[in-house]
Each structure stands twice: as structure tokens, then as C-alpha cells.
TrEMBL record:
A Pfam cross-reference name: tRNA_U5-meth_tr
Descriptive protein name: tRNA/tmRNA (uracil-C(5))-methyltransferase
Residue numbers annotated as active site: C319, E353
Gene this chain is encoded by: trmA
Organism: Pseudomonas putida
EC number: 2.1.1.35
Keyword Transferase: yes
GO cellular component, one term: cytosol
Segments passing through the bilayer: none
């Protein structure tokens, strides 16, 4: 499948993904997938560019896969949000006019949100001094953004070190902090569709939810409104801190969040060994009816996959349909696919996000 940006090919490339998902899930008797498309352009909320010197000027640059020495110089980036495309020339003009901003600047990262917030990270091969900070403060004011300066062993924050997102799910708007450097869903429009699908798939319940790999609470916030209480786990300290803020900011008070990996939680639930981070949490007080998982590309390890088998409902969001199919195969003797969906988070690439609701046979 082509990875070249060409809106005229969008419908065909999306249908190819649907066919691929159908084929992977066919052995498990999956129903027809719901398909959630992407905007054809300006869908990506974050972007990262190396800078390339040519004719004594720095330019935004990208590189073909496996090619480090032949830069593709760009002035705009049509798959990125309109805000990123607005900021790109403004930032370039600013570094061209200021040696304090441009000296040994080698990388620029943009993070924007559907809510209109924006943060720019500037990465340097030199220490950041008071001249840089004065110029960066003026830049932040001029562009209406937060600026993060990074050099070896140092980070300078001007404004906030997170962007603010707002997503509408189930008739309610949730507000999210998205920290600099932490994972966030790149396609905000499709993310919102994904959250609403998961919200509907879980349904209104009177029991409890276990969530593995919760990140900054992207799914946790809306799903918590559908159940009695939630036990959520995440290993990244930055994501845990963001999730705690997001729960508090939204007044969601029925979630306990623990910094454990999925493998560690499996050991705790199987009473293999105790964890200090679970002190004060009575695991036996939970009446889990469902588990929600959104694992990395490798999918669930066999032990975690086996853990999910004990739940009546397994709600699974996957960024790798091959590992999703492998996990479903392990579970297929006890669970069947009730719903499935394709979310086109990454148009014009072979990557795709998918979701399944597995229910006990």
C-alpha cells in the first residue's frame, strides 16, 4: 500500500485496510467492521521535523525511510493540522531573524489540539542561556503558544509543558492535558470517533472495569462514566501524572490508578507476589465485569492475554491488527467477537487502528 499523500487515493486505500481487517478476523467469525474514516488532510495534530542547512539557512526537513543524508526540504505539511501549517512559516521567520533562536537548533516538534492549543519544542546542540530564554519568551507571546527548550540535560518551559485537548464523548466534553514528550493519539478527529465507539461498545454497566495501558486517561475518563468503578494501570510516570490531573480536572472520582505494567498487575491478581504500589487497594473488593486494553504494537503478552480470559467482556483497541488476531486466537475458545471496527488513524500508510468487543461464549 502506498504511503504517498494523495487524497484522490483515499477511498481505495481505506477499502484495502477494511479488506485486510476482514481477512484477519474472518477465522473468528467476526461481524462486518464499522469503519471510521479520517479527514483527507490536516488530520495530524503533532509533527516532528529535523532542520537542514542550505544556502546559510535552516529549513524544515524530512527523510525517506533508511535515508539519512538526502533531505526533503518542506515549507508546509498538508497532513498536519491547520494550526501546525500556520505556525511553520511564522516559526521559520522567527529563527531566521534571531541567532539566539537559530544557533545550533536541530529539531522542532509541534503538538496541537482540536481545542486550538499549541506547544512547540525546540531542540539544541548547545546549552540554553538567558539570551535564548528572552527570545523564546517573546516568540511564545508572538505565536500564542507554549515553548519548550531542550538541550543536553536541560529543559526550559515557557508557558505550560502540556497542551490542552477537549473531546466530546457520549454527550459530554472531557478536558485532557497532553504532556510534552508523552504519547497522544495523533489523529484527533479519529480519536474522538474511537472513544465514542468504545463508550457505546462497553455500554452502561453496574460492575467494575479493569483498564490496562491507560496512558494519560484518554479512554479512562469516558469509560469511567459507564461503570461503578475502575482500576487502571500504566507504567509511564509522565502518563500517570497526566492521567491523575485529567481525572481531577474532569471530576472523575471512581478511578484508582496504579503505576504497574500489565505483567505486574497480572502477577498481583494471580497473587504471585505483592506490590507496594498496591497498598491500600483491596483487589478483592472489585467486581470486574469487563477489561479494557490498548496495548503497544507487540500486543498482549501470553500471560496478560490469559488474564483477560477471566472477564466476561474484553474491549480491545489495537494499533497492530496482526498481534490483535494472534491475541484473539488465544482467546477464541472462550470468547467470540461481538463487535469490531476500523479507525483510520494513519491515512496513506499501511498502519491502522482497530477495535473489537469480545464476549464470553
Amino acid at each position: 500500500m502506498s504511503s504517498v499523500y494523495d487524497p484522490t487515493t483515499y477511498t481505495a486505500q481505506l477499502e484495502a485496510k477494511v479488506e485486510r481487517l476482514r481477512a484477519l478476523l474472518a477465522p473468528f467469525g467476526a461481524p462486518e467492521p464499522a469503519v471510521f474514516d479520517s479527514p483527507r488532510e490536516h488530520y495530524r495534530l503533532r509533527a516532528e521535523f529535523r532542520l537542514w542547512r542550505e544556502n546559510e539557512q535552516r529549513h524544515y526537513a524530512m527523510f525517506a525511510p533508511g535515508e539519512k543524508h538526502q533531505a526533503i526540504l518542506i515549507d508546509d505539511f498538508p497532513i498536519a493540522s491547520q494550526r501546525i501549517n500556520q505556525l511553520m512559516p511564522q516559526l521559520k521567520a522567527a529563527w531566521q531573524a534571531s541567532s539566539a533562536l537559530s544557533f545550533k537548533l536541530f529539531q522542532v516538534e509541534f503538538l496541537t489540539t482540536l481545542a486550538g492549543d499549541a506547544m512547540i519544542t525546540l531542540c539544541y546542540h548547545r546549552p540554553l542561556d538567558e539570551h535564548w530564554e528572552a527570545a523564546a519568551r517573546q516568540l511564545a507571546t508572538d505565536l500564542g503558544v507554549s515553548i519548550i527548550g531542550r538541550s543536553k540535560g536541560k529543559r526550559v518551559v515557557i508557558g505550560r509543558d502540556y497542551a490542552v485537548e477537549e473531546l466530546a464523548v457520549g454527550g459530554r466534553t472531557f478536558r485532557y492535558r497532553q504532556p510534552e514528550g508523552a504519547f497522544t493519539q495523533p489523529n484527533g478527529t479519529v480519536n474522538q470517533k474511537m472513544l465514542n465507539w468504545a463508550y457505546e461498545a462497553l455500554g452502561e454497566r453496574e460492575d467494575d472495569l479493569l483498564e490496562l495501558y491507560c496512558g494519560n486517561g484518554n479512554f479512562t475518563l469516558p469509560l469511567a462514566t459507564r461503570v461503578r468503578k475502575v482500576l487502571a494501570t500504566e507504567i509511564s510516570k509522565t502518563s500517570v501524572n497526566a492521567a491523575l490531573h485529567n481525572l481531577d480536572d474532569n471530576g472523575v472520582d471512581n478511578v484508582r490508578l496504579v503505576r504497574l505494567s500489565a505483567e505486574e498487575l497480572t502477577e498481583a491478581l494471580n497473587e504471585v507476589r505483592p506490590f507496594r504500589r498496591l497498598e491500600g487497594i483491596d483487589l478483592k473488593s472489585y467486581a470486574f465485569g469487563s477489561v479494557f486494553v490498548d496495548p503497544p504494537r507487540a500486543g498482549m503478552d501470553p500471560d496478560t492475554c490469559e488474564l483477560t480470559r477471566r472477564f466476561d467482556n474484553i474491549l480491545y483497541i489495537s494499533c497492530n491488527p496482526e498481534t490483535l488476531a494472534a491475541n484473539i486466537e488465544q482467546l477464541s475458545d472462550t470468547h467470540r467477537i461481538e463487535r469490531c471496527a476500523l479507525f483510520d488513524q494513519f491515512p496513506y500508510t499501511h498502519h491502522m487502528e482497530s477495535g473489537v468487543l469480545l464476549v464470553r461464549r
